[in-house]
């Protein structure tokens, strides 16, 4: 029997291939439904991510949210620590933030109440397979310990995988938004 790390590595490889194919296929406006969801949270502190490689692009939705309240992008302050979020809006100077992403060069730190989360794969129970570093699991645990937070996975529909290998420490999502639908997880 394979160990969980091997199972997750295989699931990631398969999901990356599906994500790449979806990204290449394109979509006229993949963030339309995310904008709809974020409109329900106007005025609340929102954080998202700067897309890398074939990740679905949340920037149009984040730009819209920034017209109505604070928006942040994740900053890795040190390995093994939860992410922090620096204020962002269109036009803010960005610098390399590691892992091929960009972060605001300077600015205030915000504590999001709504977090748009990148992922490699998701399921309809709110399960999320990330890149394997545990950054978002630690971050969501810390944010949820401090108060309510809504975690929204944003992904291509092709990234769905209903046999995700999940662990107790894997933080669940409150919603999943794709270019095709808004999914409210069914919890058993």
Task: Summarize the structure in words.
The chain is built from 4 helices and 12 strands; from the N terminus they run H-H-E-H-E-E-E-E-E-E-E-E-H-E-E-E. The chain is globular. The chain has a single domain, classed as 3-Layer(aba) Sandwich (Rossmann fold), CATH 3.40.50. The protein is of the alpha/beta class. It is 27% helix and 20% strand. The two termini are 27 Å apart. It has helices at residues 4-25, 32-39, 59-66, 135-146, and strands at residues 46-47, 71-75, 84-87, 94-96, 102-104, 109-110, 114-117, 121-122, 128-129, 150-154, 175-177, 182-183. Strand 4 and strand 5 form a beta hairpin.
Biggest beta sheet attributes? 8 strands, mixed
Give the helix tally. Answer: 4
- What is the average per-residue confidence, as pLDDT, rounded to a whole number? 91
* Classification by helices and strands: alpha/beta
Shape: globular
Which bin fits the share of residues in helices? 25-40%
Distance between the termini: 27 Å
What share of the residues does DSSP label as strand, in percent? 15-25%
Q: Based on DSSP secondary structure assignment, what is the total number of beta strands?
A: 12
Main CATH class: Alpha Beta
User: What name goes with the CATH superfamily?
Assistant: NagB/RpiA/CoA transferase-like
Radius of gyration: 16 Å
Give the domain tally.
Answer: 1
SSE arrangement, N to C? HHEHEEEEEEEEHEEE
Low-confidence stretches: none
CATH architecture descriptor name: 3-Layer(aba) Sandwich
